[in-house]
Amino acid sequence: MNKNNNCKASNYDWGRLILELFVVFLGITAGFVLNNWREGKSSKELESKYIESFMTDVESNIEELENAWTSDSIWLKKAKPILGQMAVEELNVDSAKRLISMVVQVSKIEIHTTTYTDMVNSGNMKIIRSFNLKKEIVDYHIALEGLAFVEKYVEKHFSSFVLPFVFNKFDILKGEFIDNNILHTPEFSNIIAGYTSMIQQREDNYSKLLKESKQFKLSLEDIIKRDGQ
To answer: Among 22, 72, 95, 190, which residue carries the largest CB count within 10 Å?
Structure first.
């Protein structure tokens, strides 16, 4: 019995068996390598699409911020001499009317965060390979959230204080104050000064975020250029 088993063992082509095992091993390994390569290629392509989408968002934001910053800067420039008249108690009715017409002009900026929201909700933030870029993306959108907070605060101040004052003290249809004596009261000066302060804060935030947006755009351009080489 043992003799037969020894004969069978001796008849095995061990070299061929080892070769077959090696071929199987190579096949499995190649399969893993190919699968990893495909996944890596797919992730890289998806990362490139997200980066391009970020570029689209930030370019739109830059345009929005430039327009909003310009609008607030012009508003403050026009308001400054009228506020100067108020400070020395020389405000005339015509200047006050112009100021009211400026105050009731409501503007709203449209900030684009679609790409970031999609990446966070889908869990795809991990496909961004560069730690610095990932940090810059997060920091940029924290700054966007900060601007949104400021805008909501300005909007709340306007709806809670400015608009009720205008409706109660100004005849919009005639374009006149119901009582011109209101111009010399702390109520009027506080409303105007408070709202002007809100606009100044908003303009400062527009300016700051505009710089951050342009810097973020440069970072995206560098990555797109590097990946294209």
So the answer is: 72
Residue tagged 């080489």 (tokens): 229
The two tokens of residue 172 are: 């919009």
Domain segments of the chain as ranges: 2-228
Are the C-beta atoms of 105 and 68 separated by less than 8 Å?
no
Give per-residue pLDDT as tens, 59-92: 999 999 999 999 999 999 999 999 999 888 888 9
Q: How far apart are CA 102 and CA 75, in angstroms?
A: 7
Q: Specify the DSSP class assigned to residue 176.
A: E
Contact 191, 165 (CB under 8 A): yes
Nearest CA to 194 among 83, 77, 74?
Answer: 83
The helix-helix angle for 131-157 and 186-228 (nearest 10°) equals 160
- The pLDDT tens digits of the residues spanning 157-205 come to 999 999 999 999 999 888 999 999 999 899 999 999 999 999 999 999 9
CA–CA separation, 154 vs 165, rounded Å?
A: 15
Q: Would the pTM of this model clear 0.70, i.e. be above it?
A: yes
> What residues contact 207, with CB distance under 8 A and at least 6 apart?
69
Give the DSSP H or E segment for 170: strand 170-171
Buried b / exposed e across 87-121, counting CB within 10 Å, b at 16+? eeeebeeebbeebbebbeeeeebebbeebbeebee
Non-local CB neighbours of 180 within 8 Å, separated by 6+ positions = 93
